[in-house]
Amino acid sequence: MSGTFFAIAIVTIAGAIAAMSLRNPVHCALCLVIAFAGLAAAYLQLGAEFVGFAQILVYIGAVAILIVFAILLTRSSEVKSGKYFSGASWIGIAICIILFAAFARAIRSSDLLTGHSQPPRATVQEIGIQMFKGTRGNQTNYLLPLEVAGVLLTAAMLGAAVIALQENSPEREKHSDAQPTS
User: Fold this and answer.
1) Domain interval for residue 60
2) What is the value of pTM for the model shown?
């Protein structure tokens, strides 16, 4: 293991801890982006290009930005004071330690560490060819579902923008002021 891997691991773990422990939701979301970027860098360094690029596109490019937009649109920037840990947080810490021990045991007993077997390596190009080639020669069986998913995601994003704009429009505020409350 190289020094680069340890540096990436430290940045990833620090970003994850900061995302859990900071009080400001925007700062938490930005630290989560740092943790996601660290995971993507670790995947890329370990030779898993497809997983690394998917991490960048899906988690950093979509999930983290969606979280930031949701926080900013709901304007929940109030920082609530209170206890950091509750009585039940020790149960979560114990479960994390048990899971870490189980994963460490599984990794240490793996054949990959002893060098008996080599993990399959696939480049992004090979995965793309297999994904679009399909089972019937050169016919692209998966192109239509990919396009439909892209259109669906675009429609969902546009719908979210329209809903966000309607909530902040001046006409909406006029109608909500005129309605009597019971």
Assistant:
1) 1-77
2) 0.57
